[in-house]
């Protein structure tokens, strides 16, 4: 199975989730569900995102349903620190690169101290600001369930996130600190980003960079999708899930 784009053939299409396949923390739209089902009839699909397993289940699996193509769907929550695949009628964890207890506690402490010191600790939030995702610690400035409009308005040029990322990275030299979604900073084990997940998946499936096409909304320098493109994987920069739907529809047609 494969899809073609610009004269090249790809056996696996990889996607970021928030602001690429769906609005931030939101479920796939009906149109995107149809496109995903069509795509899984033509090629393997991987979704890799900073979101945790619960978000993947709510945003993707709860919408896409159960069908024969699930065996070709690969899920990589928390920036590829975890890998799930469908086997024998259920989703199994192939691997999960958890932080140690000490790493988790230091990450939580430093990112909260930084947010307060930099004036980024908000009083009006929607859900928890700090989350221990096992293999990743995530700071979400407005909380995990903040509405899309509020998140978009909080840091339109990315300066707030970058100031907190730099603060935490300086104080956590043994960990990986990255800008995540529109209001988030993610912390994982050193050397782990979306490129790590892509490399692990290629090893497990026996693929090369030439076999993969990637869609992401943060392919800019410093963006959390950029490491995938830096591996040499062909990448398409999108601006929201509507743009992805249009481009994916054209590719399938």
Automatic annotation (TrEMBL):
Alphabetic keyword roster: Hydrolase
NCBIfam families given in the database record: HAD-SF-IIB
Entry-linked Pfam families: Hydrolase_3 (PF08282)
Organism this protein belongs to: Gordonia defluvii
Gene Ontology MF terms: hydrolase activity
Protein name: HAD-IIB family hydrolase
Highest taxon, organism lineage: Bacteria
